Structures are given as C-alpha cells and as structure tokens.
Amino acid sequence: MSAPVLWFFLPFLFGSLSMLFSEKRKLITILAIILCLFLAFVALTIPINSMIVYGNNSLIFTSTKEILGRSLTLERSSQPILAFLYLFAAIWFFGALVVQVHRLFVPIAIMDIALIIGVISVKPFIYGAFFVEFVVLLTMPLFWVQRTKRGDGILRFLFFQTFGLAFIALGGWLSASVDINPSDEFLVTRAAVIFFLGFIFWLAIFPFHDWVAVLMDETCPYVSGFVMSLLQFSTLFILLNFLNTYAWMRSFTPIFSGLKIVGTIMLLLGSIWAFFQKSLQRLEAYSIVAENGFSLLLLGIKTENSIHLLLSFLIIRVIAAAAWSLAVKILSVDTNGNVTLQQIPGLFKRKPVVSIALLASFFSVAGLPLFAGFPLKIVMISLGFSQSALIGTVTAAGCWFIIITGFKITVLLLSLSENDVFSRETGGQTAILIVLILIMLSLTFFPLLFNQFIRNLQFQFPAFLVK
Prior knowledge:
Layout: H1 3-18, H2 25-45, E1 50-54, E2 57-61, E3 64-67, E4 70-73, H3 79-98, H4 105-121, E5 122-123, H5 128-145, H6 152-180, H7 185-202, H8 210-217, H9 221-245, H10 247-250, H11 253-275, H12 280-301, H13 304-335, H14 347-350, H15 352-366, H16 373-387, H17 389-414, H18 427-445, H19 447-458
Helix pairs in contact: 1-2, 1-4, 2-3, 3-4, 3-13, 3-18, 4-5, 4-9, 5-6, 5-9, 6-7, 6-8, 8-12, 9-12, 9-13, 11-12, 11-17, 12-13, 13-15, 13-16, 13-18, 13-19, 15-17, 15-18, 16-17
C-alpha cells in the first residue's frame, strides 16, 4: 500500500464512480463524508513509511507511487495538510446536505481534492500546474450549468487559468536550463519573468483581476467558494515550492522587490474595491484580491516569520470561505441568485446564525480584535514598516479598509429594517454554521495548537526555515 494510492487514487476513483449514481445525492454525500473522515483519520494516526501489523500479517505503508514516468510522493511532513484538506472537504459536504447544490458537486469536489493532493505530491513539482488545470476543466461543466448570467466570467476563468498554466510550464522548462547555467543573467531574468507571469493570471493580479468578481457574481456561491479556495491554496503552494526548490530564484532580488510592490498595491486596491461593492459575492471576490496582495507581500519579505504568516492566513482563508459561502448560499435561495447589500438590512432578526457566520468569517480574515487574523495582521503591519514607511502605511490602510467594510456589513445586518424576503434558518443549516463559527473561534482560543500545525506545514519548505 502506498500513500498516493490511498489519498490520491482512491478518492479520485470514488468521485469518478459516484458521478454514475449522482442522482442519489444524499447517499453519495454521506459516503463522501465517511471517506473524507476516514482519510483524515489515517493521516493523523498512521505515519507514512511505517509497517502496519494486523494479526499475523504486516503491510508496508510506502510514500511513493510511479505513474507515467513521474512519481507521486507523500512524506510524513505532508500528513498534517492531508488531514486538513480532507477535513475541509468533509465540512463542505456536510454543508451540501443542508443546502441545495448541483448533483455533481460532491463527485467533482472530491476529485478536485484528490487533484490538489496531486499538486502536493507530484515530482517534479512543476507538473502540479497541470493538476490545477485539471481542477479547472473538471469544474467548468458545473459552473456552466449553474450560471445565472451569460457566462462571461466563466469563460474568462478558463482563459486566464489556461494562459497561466502555459506561462508556468514554460517558466519551469526554462528553470531547468538556468540550473545548468545560473550565471546567465539574461536567462535567469527571462525564466523568472515568464514564470511569474503565470501567477499574475492565476492570482488575479491587476490588471487581470476582474474575472474573479465576474465569476463569483454569476455562479453558485457555494461552488465558486469551494473552487476558489482550492485554487488559491494550490497556486500559493506551487509558488512556495518553486522558490523553495531553486536557490537561484531565492537569490534573484528583483523578484522579491516586485512581489512587495505588487502585493502592496493589490492589497490596497482590493480592499478599496471591496468597500464599494453592492453584492456579497463581488465583495468576497475583491477580498480575495486583497488577501492575495497580503500573500505576495509576505512572500516578498522572504523571512521565516513572513512565510509562517502566509501559511497561517492561507488556512484561515480556507476555513472562513466555507462559512461565508454556505451563508451566502443560504441567502441566495431566497433571492433566486445574487445577494445585494440592499437586501440584508435587518437580516440578523430573520437569520441570526447566518448573520453571525458572515461576520465571523469576514472579520477572521480581516483581522478584527478577538478573531484569528488579528495578531497575524498586527505582525504583518510591523513587517511592512520594517521594509519601509510607505509599505507599512499602505498595509495598515488596506487592513483598515477591510475592517471598515466589515463594519458596514454589521450595521446593515443589525439595522431595524423589517425584511421579509428571507425565510427562517433550518435546524441543519444552523448546526453546520455553528460548527464553522466554533472552528474559526478555536483558532483564536487555541493559538498554540494552530501555530504548531502551521509549523509542521512549514517544514515542507526548509529553504525558508532558519538553519
């Protein structure tokens, strides 16, 4: 038995077969939850590259599987993120039991999770970009059949993701040449520029940012929230892996200077755009743009502490996205599509738990005091000022714009307006949302456990650890 077979091939096969029986939604969803919980339990309890003894028999739990001339390798250091991803998937599938989603969502979602495991495990790691493209192609039919408008954002999504793949693949090929001749400055510059052009498309960096808002505005918020969370995670993981692998890239100063400049601009513009949005979906889209700016800034600072913060924010964003997407999906059922800010005044009285989930998820990422992101944002602003007064000031301004946007949502939710557009929450919806809220709060009240998890995750990038 090999780890890639268990965590990659098995769930992908389950997702493929479950598409044939997708009409039995509840049964498929329950089986998917059981499978994800089982895989998470194994990741937490059985070390990779160990011997499993049962009765008079034994089984070697190996780390590598060869396929098509490439290897899939999962080491013990990968087990915390394996457990997290499958627990994350189980939470989304629990949500699918209490809201109406497309019958293909669960089969495609579990295949997407398996493909993200492929991103983590494939060697050479540059082939992970092709797994990301498979996630995009798998999700396209789901987006298209659930679109609420013409589908311009869906087509832009496909175009930019595919265009990004082309540049990243070309950059990876040039990187192999740089390893042979690292003294060729022209080759180094060309490889770095082409590679990072791919991430400009993937991470929605200005001026290629509007596809995120258009996509999330015209698709199911639950599906788009799931897919965007996975794609942002895999994109930043590949970027970190690339920088961890190539020493010549880490010593190429213009890249990190550019990351700091671009990240600072994006976090400010994204937070300002989020403040002026009129719908919850578009507001979330520009929050993603702002948070990508934070990630690029932290990556540009290039210290052990900044990488720790980047990974911490990434995990918080993934958890918060589940609560936000479920809450918006619940609201969109009553509004037959897009949920605007004009529709939510007085919502707290009709749907109190949904309202709390919206605020808890938004403020966890924004960094309001008493939420998980607050100490991280404080440290991040300090890191910004350590680079320059301008970067520190813009970073602080971006944080304040996001928090002010959250206050604007709070005022609307708590207003005294009578709103009979929305129905009452169901018991199942309330239960799942409360669990998600408690998970987000636990990151605040048990910071040592959270920091230890991030530390274990950071071991996968030894180039960013202090020797």
